[in-house]
Design goal:
The chain is an alpha/beta fold and 400 residues long. It contains 14 helices and 16 strands. The chain folds into 2 domains: 263 residues, Rossmann fold (3-Layer(aba) Sandwich); 131 residues, GMP Synthetase, Chain A, domain 3. β8 and β9 form a beta hairpin. α1 packs across α2.
């Protein structure tokens, strides 16, 4: 149960961090019933900004180029797909264009690092930045309509690699954190004080504490009244002192930035007693351009496994390059050359994780996890219980 006061407190707190006014335009495409999109709607209503509604997800790029939004509010999946498409175009480009892209990306990364540290770019780097914008980054920004000044990500974890890439291209993604029960924003990165990979600092008027077991609790005017007609469930998460227990595990760094590890209930404890956060592994896997989705499993098991959904369009292109004969994605999912290729992609994505955390075996899935099948939420987060139940036999086969 969220009140007018809950939402208004959240809108005012957001405006203290992110400047939005009546000159801004937002292109709306998330479900209007979802709290993340609802607070965005109230935010623009409050400042007198303009909201334009996309025709569909499929027409999102076309619509962005029609209306040139200044602020894009999205879940990570959209940024992941945009990132993968850009890498696709680079892969298909000539050797010279690839070299130019690499040159410009290194310039963008240097610019990004200096901006994050609050340093001046200097004459030489400013000149290089103009060249990189002209050759590469301007075209990327045109894909989003050419007028974007802020991109906001919420609803699920955003890969640090993707946030850093877009910042190098001159597109700033501000990641925040919250839940439906908190109206929803608890923390968000400040455009002038960013730490990619974190969910920023706690907003004004919001209290956050980390419990002994690492769970994040929050208190303030943003917290719901409770669950409608469910007093017992309300009492489980909302204590007498007004602290809402989020069910998320996280920590503060020395500078006050909040970092999310995973959902408390999602933490995998292997047979060897190792605690593994599946979300971090899934983000690393799905950042790979050939992997569309990943579901990580292994509670009580000797090793971590995964269900991998390849980007089948890219995999089919790869199969044609390698002259692999196939008539369906089922053929590709069983092909030893394809499986070996995907194994290398998985191993590459796992290189920064400990041996106990790394995915040892995986099953290739023929279709994406979908909202229609009840496998993902409206913000495209995986429904772990539903996927585990539905694909139990596939998961169990990895341990035989």
């Amino acid at each position: 149960m969220l009140t007018h006061s809950n939402f208004l407190s959240n809108v005012k707190a957001i405006l203290e961090v992110i400047g939005v006014d009546d000159t801004d335009t937002s292109l709306s495409f998330l479900p209007l019933s979802h709290v993340f999109e609802r607070v965005a709607y109230y935010l623009f209503l409050y400042v007198g900004g303009k909201i334009i509604y996309a025709e569909s997800i499929e027409k999102l790029v076309e619509n962005m180029q029609e209306v040139s939004p200044t602020i894009l509010i999205s879940v990570p999946r959209i940024y992941e797909k945009a990132y993968a498409r850009i890498l696709d175009r680079v892969h298909e480009a000539s050797a010279l264009r690839k070299m130019i892209f690499g040159f410009c990306l290194r310039i963008g990364q240097e610019v990004s690092q200096k901006l994050q540290r609050g340093q001046e770019l200097g004459f030489a780097l400013s000149l290089k930045k103009k060249i990189a914008d002209k050759l590469v980054f301007g075209k990327i920004r045109e894909t989003f309509g050419g007028e974007i000044r802020l991109m906001i990500s919420g609803g699920a974890a955003l890969s640090k690699e993707i946030a850093e890439f877009f910042h190098a291209a001159g597109l700033l993604i501000l990641e925040g954190y919250g839940l439906s029960e908190t109206s929803p924003v608890i923390s968000v990165n400040d455009p002038d004080n960013i730490r990619f990979g974190s969910v920023g600092k706690v907003m004004q008027g919001v209290e956050v504490r980390i419990e002994d077991d690492g769970e994040i609790s929050t208190r303030g005017p943003h917290v719901m009244r409770g669950y409608y007609n469910r007093p017992e469930e309300t009492a489980e998460v909302l204590d007498q002192d007004g602290w809402f227990h989020t069910g998320d595990i996280g920590h503060f760094d020395p500078d006050g930035f909040l970092w999310i590890t995973d959902r408390k209930k999602a933490i995998i404890v292997t047979a060897g007693g190792k605690n593994v956060a599946p979300q971090a592994l899934e983000n690393a896997l799905s950042t790979d351009q050939f992997i569309s989705q990943a579901f990580v499993y292994g509670d009580g098991r000797k090793f971590i496994s995964a269900l991998i959904v390849p980007d089948w369009e890219r995999m089919e292109n790869y199969a044609r390059e390698k002259n692999i004969d196939y008539s369906s994605v089922k053929d590709l999912s069983d092909d030893p050359v394809i499986l070996d290729f995907l194994q290398k992609r998985v191993d590459g994505a796992m290189k920064d994780f400990s041996r106990a955390e790394q995915v040892k075996k995986f099953k290739v899935m023929e279709r994406e996890f979908s909202q229609d099948e009840g496998e993902v939420t409206p913000t495209l987060k995986l429904k772990r219980k539903e996927i585990t139940k539905r694909y139990w036999d596939d998961l169990e086969s990895l341990y035989k």
